[in-house]
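Hi W., the flavin-adenine dinucleotide complex you wanted:
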Amino acid sequence: MDRLFDQRRYLIPFRSTLLPQIFTDTLVIGAGVAGLRAAVAASEHGDVIVLSKGDLKSTNTAWAQGGIAAVLTKDDSTESHVQDTLVAGAGLCDHDAVRAIVEHGPRSLRQLMSWGMRLDTNAEGELAVGREGGHSASRIVHTDGDATGRELQRCLVEKVRGTTGVRVFENCFALDLITPGNEPGSPVMGAITYHPKYGLQMIWAKATILASGGAGVLFRETTNPAQATADGLAMAYRAGATVSDMAFVQFHPTTLYLPGAARWLITEAVRGEGACLLDSSHYRFMLDVHPLAELAPRDVVSRAIVRQIAKQASAAGGGHVWLDCRHIKGFQQRFPGICALLKKFDLDPAEDLIPVHPAAHYMIGGVHTDLAGRSDVPGLYVVGEAASTGLHGANRLASNSLLEGLVMGEIAGHTCAEMKTANGTQTTRPSGWTTPARPAPVSVISDIRPSDQGELDLDDVRSSLRSAMWKNVGIERSGAKLRDVGDMLDFWARYTLDKIFDEPAGWEVQNMLLVGALVARSAAWRDESRGCHTRTDTTEAKPDYEVHDCWRRGRGNAETVPVSKAPASVVVSGKGALV
Ligand SMILES: Cc1cc2nc3c(=O)[nH]c(=O)nc-3n(C[C@H](O)[C@H](O)[C@H](O)COP(=O)(O)OP(=O)(O)OC[C@H]3O[C@@H](n4cnc5c(N)ncnc54)[C@H](O)[C@@H]3O)c2cc1C
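Structure:
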């Protein structure tokens, strides 16, 4: 697998001095909740450029339905939210990350509301709070029932548009992070980007915040929009950053399963309102699986569904189970978006059963960061779904991810001001490295040659990769399946990673191959079942694996980092940065 993990440093050949040059204090790669929140914070310390590879609506953030978890009512407490997060995380949450993010949540939400974010209220005019699986209190705030993400994205886009010093480049694809040297530890100084109108450009930045989102598209079945191709994880790994806990991919139990339809999420809040899962004989099978039935943790429900589908398949029962909402009063008012979606397929939840199936939903692993959003590469900060802060452990508690993006976006946006120094002097950073004060362009040369191997059917590689990931690295894994997929990816890498592409579709497939292999390698290393990582050949959680597995370019084996269990004494400063 070396070819995959130690592939060339950059995806394309270039000479930095021959390309158009753009300068900024902070470059934010990604315009979802984490990137936009980071941009607003960073704008207090200098100018900012935000990149989005598509338009500003094509983010996982905009697709979020259920809501944002935060302690906002008198019946709830920080302790309870912390505890629920730790239970879901199955021994792998970093306690200080959990406490810091949960404590910071109410403040972040109030700030959002002051920026104009609309949230649903109840008859008394108080915030309406919903409940989702794993939460012991009602603490999920939402907008228009199930359109929370759309409103959050709208609010943050408007805030960013109205913030002086922030420029937004839409349809601008980041290919790679720029480092003056190729060895791990060489500081990140911005990114090389591609825009269909302007071509390749160098964007030099004192600080780079990676907020490029998740990796759902690695899997054949996913709830994620098409942009979630793991580019950020791949470029951070190529630049020498450490990634951790890559085995942990959360699968959502209930997505609409109709031939030809995208795998639209049917939010867990629907099961929170009483929806039941039925097998092909209309039997409510979750009652036999878990005391919480349909509200059992997501991994339990997802596994139960795939096992039920396997049983049914042998009895010709079809490739899905049914979600029954027919008895839920006021469904249309509570879930107008889902009703509108179902209507497009001539389904009425008051009358019809809804065919559902699990799908890859959330990337828990990512670039390993500290609680200020720093990666281990100087100048590179990582936030949102692309980061691994230790909040989610081995399984994400529902609705904690928008919260994490908001909180860590704000914190990293302030932290990265540490890269800004006066008048070109050199500064020593806390971790001991030094960095030039201005993002002066250095000459970076990527000298790779075109491959002499033949043409490639990119769509075929992409769909083969997604199928292989779904079958072998999906909801149920085993050592044998993971070895098989490792061999497959290694073989495909031989004739895919040596190519030079000139547009995003090719770069995305190269990124997906690398990150798919990182997920498979971590899953093979983790010889246990824990949280959302289920191995059929080793079904228990093992104490030896209660650690984060960390991987870095040029280092073939996992390094392990202990999980922080210490009670946190984290202080929130006036600017919102954690110190
Ligand atoms: C259907 C669905 C429902 C969900 N519901 C909820 C929920 O109710 N509550 C909750 O807490 N979480 C929910 N989640 C998860 C949550 O939405 C995400 O974890 C969160 O929005 C991630 O935010 P982000 O800012 O990290 O990334 P995103 O919002 O995905 O933004 C990523 C950004 O990076 C950009 N980007 C990526 N690659 C490149 C590149 N190469 N060059 C330039 N730009 C790039 C993209 O264009 C995009 O702007 C849901 C997710 C989905 C898919």
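The chain is about 30% helix and 20% strand.

W.
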